Amino acid sequence: MDTIVQINTDFIENNTNFNELIAELRNKFASNSILVPMRHHHDFPNPVVQEDSTLLLMPAWNPGKEAGVKIVTVSPKNGQFDLPSIQGTYLYMDAIKGTIKAIMEAKSLTVKRTASASALASSYLSKPDASSLLMIGTGALSTNLIKAHANVRPIKTVYIWGRNHEKAKKISAELEGESFDIYAIPTIEEKISEVDIISCATLSKTPLVLGDYLKAGQHIDLVGAYKKDMREADNESIKKATVFVDTFQGGLKESGDIVIPLKEGVLKEEDIKADLFELCSETKQGRTSDHEITIFKSVGHALEDLAAATYYYNQYTHE
User: Fold this and answer.
1) pLDDT (tens digit, 9 = 90+) per residue, 139-185?
2) Contact assessment for residue 133 and residue 157, using Cβ atoms and an 8 Å cutoff
3) Which of 141, 250, 259, 313 would give a disulfide with 299, using CB separation of 3.0 to 4.6 Å?
């Protein structure tokens, strides 16, 4: 039997070329050969800490080639054990024989594929000459989103805002040697109307991107707010923009950014112009003019995990 390789965080962090990973995602979305069932979501009792834990299973198959499943547990009380509440592993398999080829650390894999999906969307939706970016949020995704966006557009200036200004300053210091200038800013309002791209990755329950501040030609990338009661952009933003999602399967159901405007009648399902399958296969068009405002809502998809796992497995075995 083939050896099962273990691919850890360090390998993923040190072997990511965003251009290559974005191209891998583009190919997989365009080919439409990957089968992805709805993800499984199971709550189970955890009497020791008196709060339920959740098990999420996210499978995907590329028939005759590779398959995989991301296994994630969410245990909200893990702080008392000095552990993150989210734990995850990716099992990468041979789709013909069903054998396991690799076990991968899922957190960095997810962060990298999420940032790449946003940059992939931006390559269709932001203006080709977009040179400035506002990053809202200072979590693990922020540095990756900044770098991925800078791979598909000529970004010269980045502004970063977070609830904790010190954290924003730390990230801007970390990214000092990159090909763009980066500044931590104390308020969103001071720059939101000036930038070409706004990327938002937070767990906010109240909108941070307000339509009143948006200007013609901007692209808004909404990556956080993964629950139905969370949202990062207000109704005014939705009204002003052409809306796109990563997939219709998850995009219409999982995040308050789409669910709430649909429920309130601000947005209709038929108003959502395209998903990544349609953009990458060029069956639908992205941005159509320089003054259009575009919004991309990402909730994540198992196709992205499988594409990223294939990318890292190939890197690891061809070293």
Assistant:
1) 889 999 999 999 999 999 999 999 999 999 999 999 998 999 999 99
2) yes
3) 250
184-189 contacts, C-beta under 8 A, 24 or more apart: 184/159, 184/160, 185/159, 185/160, 185/161, 186/161, 187/161, 188/134, 188/136, 188/161, 189/213
> What is the rounded distance in angstroms from the CA atom of residue 318 to the CA atom of residue 298?
31
> Which amino acid, residue 239?
K
Q: Which residue has the tokens 């199971």?
A: 42
Q: Phi and psi of 276, rounded to 5°?
A: -65, -30
Q: How far apart are the first and last CA of the chain?
A: 21
pLDDT in tens, 90-139: 999 999 999 999 999 999 999 999 999 999 999 999 999 999 999 999 98
Q: How far is CA 100 from CA 4, 91, 292, 313, in A?
A: 6, 7, 46, 12
Strand order through the sheet with 219-222 = 181-184, 157-161, 132-136, 197-200, 219-222, 294-297, 242-245, 274-275
Determine the Cα–Cα distance for residues 305 and 259; give it in Å rounded to an integer: 24
Pairing of strands 66-74, 53-61: antiparallel
Q: How far apart (Å, rounded) are the C-alpha atoms in residues 157 and 310?
A: 33
